[in-house]
Amino acid sequence: MSIDLHPITVFSFVEFSGVAAGALAGALEARRNRTYHYDLIGVLGLAVITALGGGIARDMLIQKGPPLAFLDARYLLAALGCGSFALFFSPRAGRGMDRFIWWADAASLGLFSVAGVSRALNANLTMLPALILGLITAVGGGSLRDVFMGRSPRVFEHGEPYAIAALLAVLAFLGGESLGWERSASTAAGVLAGLILKILSHRFRWTTSTVRFRGEE
Predict the structure, then answer these.
(1) How confident is the model over 5-51, as pLDDT tens digits?
(2) Would residue 212 count as lying in a domain?
(3) What are the distances in angstroms from CA 96 to CA 89, 101, 106, 146?
């Protein structure tokens, strides 16, 4: 017996999963920072920024009322709850903290990509604006976290294909929608596509190339 999930139910599940993963990644990143020494407010604040920043930016651009994070208290509660869990968990993570941060960040990337494009389509936007908003949702929170931590956003720097993985997730989701798949199937395809590219790039050390003018060091 198949279960046909309503699009809003699928969206809510994906977005809250992304919020949870983003909050974990943001809090753990703050805990391990060696440049600044964050207190409780700093760690939880960066967890909330990472978890909700991209979605708030997306909703402000869509202009269909206040951002969902301001309408539904569960968003903030999920971010604070997962940030608090990271505070409790991180002293026990030891050498596994970097690995845990990577997995949380990789998971949130695909989840937020799909949540962003799904939210845009639910707002009756066409595919190109939906694609852009999917990318903004995916990289917005992490970029804001990096700025608040006093560094250039990683998405703009040489390294693992972060934005490219988000783009692949969005394209896989939109491809499924174009083929008439159920929203749950398109969602799974998008999340897995982004995650698989992140895993492969990490495994085989694929990185983006630095762009410089000829003759520059």
Answers:
(1) 444 578 899 999 999 999 999 999 998 888 899 999 999 999 999 99
(2) no
(3) 11, 9, 15, 22
